[in-house]
């Protein structure tokens, strides 16, 4: 009967890893055969089926489990993160998409303001709360991603200029909307894209093509078609009224024009500051940090403070959140895209507003045709801008 013996050998190879092997040997085999068949007779128990050797110091098992957890988590959030990153930076149309989403959020703000407005709140008080929320949210965003709150040193002059010019535009717009009829103030506010394109040609040396000029003109004519009949009625009623802001009408119009001009320059400063600071949220925080205290001063010195009720406060908070998202997307879109193309997409807000009025049946029959024609003008212009795609000469 053949006898066999087993022995345990401990080997310490390079790397100070401990490996334990169990070998089986036949004692009755000749000595000459032992040397020839030693390679076949040594059967390490830990490498059966050609499995790789591992030891207690290896982290391969834990690494695999962690990778599996990460893969499961990535699979769960992949659609949301992929869509967000595609809109933010991965798409060729990211700049235009950000502007379209920003314009849509402004339209949602208009709906929320008209639907849930319980009590009238002074405009500077509304601006103060909105700018406060913008400042807080942008500060938290920058802290979370590790960006400098006040931006890099070489971009601070642009950031301060953007904040000051932006608040000057807001200040003039608030006064003009208080002194002018609502639709006249709205028309003047939509001069911003035209002024921004002119300012971009002067300050940023962006090329204005015939298609860009035609697109902006088509969109603005669409706005005039929509609000033209309303403006005519309001001007006629103002002419028959002796004390309806008649003496201050010209000053209100000038303030509206100043708001549009400074708003266009502010768009250029947003683009320049966002490129210099390499993050658009920094420009949003710069505006909020300047607009918040100045709006507070105007609120207490020019208006009487009104304590909002609970429902009104909730609607104001919701509007602040929407305004923050809209401002961030606006800054990102201006950072990525040529200003004449990006600002033309902002006219989507007018189309969405008119479609909502038509769907709810609030449009009167005399103005129905002009609303449809004006919306068609804007849709053709914006669709052509998106169809042509981003500007090839954008840096």
From TrEMBL:
Pfam families: EamA (PF00892)
Entry's transmembrane regions: 163-180, 186-204, 216-237, 249-270, 282-302, 314-333, 368-387
Top-rank taxon: Eukaryota
Bilayer disposition of the protein: Multi-pass membrane protein
A Gene Ontology cellular-component term: membrane
Magnesium listed as a keyword: no
Assigned keywords, A-Z: Membrane, Transmembrane, Transmembrane helix
Localization in the cell: Membrane
Record carries keyword Coiled coil: no
Location of the EamA domain: 97-227
Similarity-based family: Belongs to the drug/metabolite transporter (DMT) superfamily. Plant drug/metabolite exporter (P-DME) (TC 2.A.7.4) family.
Record protein name field: EamA domain-containing protein
Organism this protein belongs to: Arabis alpina (Alpine rock-cress)
